[in-house]
Specification:
Elements lengths: L8 E3 L12 E3 L4 E4 L13 E3 L4 E2 L15 E3 L6 E2 L13 E3 L4 E2 L15 E3 L5 E3 L7 E3 L6 E2 L13 E3 L4 E4 L13 E3 L4 E2 L2
Parallel strand pairs: 1-3, 2-4, 3-5, 4-6, 6-8, 7-9, 8-12, 12-14, 13-15, 14-16, 15-17
Antiparallel strand pairs: 10-11
């Protein structure tokens, strides 16, 4: 479903959750307001969700983690608050995570990157759950109000090519292990309070 770059307004209708065959949802470049409907998380075949450049509010839905094939998530240029949900650790195929130009304030969660040795965790009910954003290629969190340090666990995202975290309130030092990310092409942490 491609409705990009139009003048659609109002809230995204919850009825969108009944379009279960969708593999792509492009609503970017419109005037949608309100929160992302929870029904969107039932579209488990979505490979891309593009909601950038709207006027969406609320927090980023943690239930996006229930979309196992999601590869691209663009929530940039909206009015989201809170932070990146820890549940996103389950998005093993996610390649692009763009949340720049919002009002995010929470620290980058350490748990979404997984560990260097773990491949999967088995929960009590026997379900296998992922342990991190291992496929991530692009991460843009710039122009928010994200606090805290850059977690050293980010080095577990070994496919990472672009990490853009400029204009936040990050502090501490750059993890020295970032040097082990051999695919990293762009690293922008300008306009923060980093030391070292």
């Amino acid at each position: 479903l491609a409705l990009s770059n139009n003048q659609f307004s109002g809230e995204i209708p919850g009825g969108i959750g009944s379009m279960t065959g969708l593999t792509s949802l492009r609503l970017d470049g419109n005037r949608f307001t309100g929160q992302i409907p929870a029904e969107m998380c039932s579209l488990i075949g979505l490979k891309e969700i593009l909601l950038g450049s709207n006027q969406l509010t609320g927090t980023i839905p943690s239930c996006f983690a229930r979309i196992p094939v999601l590869e691209r998530l663009d929530l940039s240029n909206n009015r989201f608050s809170g932070g990146i949900p820890t549940e996103f650790a389950a998005l093993q195929l996610l390649q692009d995570l763009l949340v720049n130009n919002n009002f995010l304030v929470d620290q980058l969660p350490r748990t979404i990157w997984g560990s260097a040795t773990a491949v999967a965790n088995v929960k009590n009910d026997g379900q296998v759950t992922a342990t991190g954003l291992r496929s991530l290629v692009r991460l843009n969190i710039s122009n928010n109000q994200i606090i805290g340090e850059i977690p050293t666990e980010i080095v577990n995202a070994t496919s990472l090519q672009e990490f853009i975290a400029s204009t936040n309130q990050l502090r501490g030092s750059l993890p020295s292990a970032l040097g082990t990310l051999v695919n990293l092409r762009v690293l922008d942490v300008s306009n923060n309070s980093l030391t070292g």
